[in-house]
């Protein structure tokens, strides 16, 4: 079992308590397998009531992993840090 990843970085991000993925963050980070990423996207897009907040948080914090049904900054995982700067 993966260790749990705590992703709350700001008290204003309390919306995470309502996220469909609450307590499952380990499956969403940049080390997740393609299968885990696909399952994460599925959960986001079918069950999550806070997609907009999650998307904004992922962009603001430059999160690398799956959030709001999207895999963010994928180029960084492939060793292209310049592609993650946008």
TrEMBL record:
<feature type="domain" description="4Fe-4S Wbl-type">
    <location>
        <begin position="20"/>
        <end position="77"/>
    </location>
</feature>
<dbReference type="InterPro" id="IPR034768">
    <property type="entry name" value="4FE4S_WBL"/>
</dbReference>
<protein>
    <submittedName>
        <fullName>Transcription factor WhiB</fullName>
    </submittedName>
</protein>
<dbReference type="Pfam" id="PF02467">
    <property type="entry name" value="Whib"/>
</dbReference>
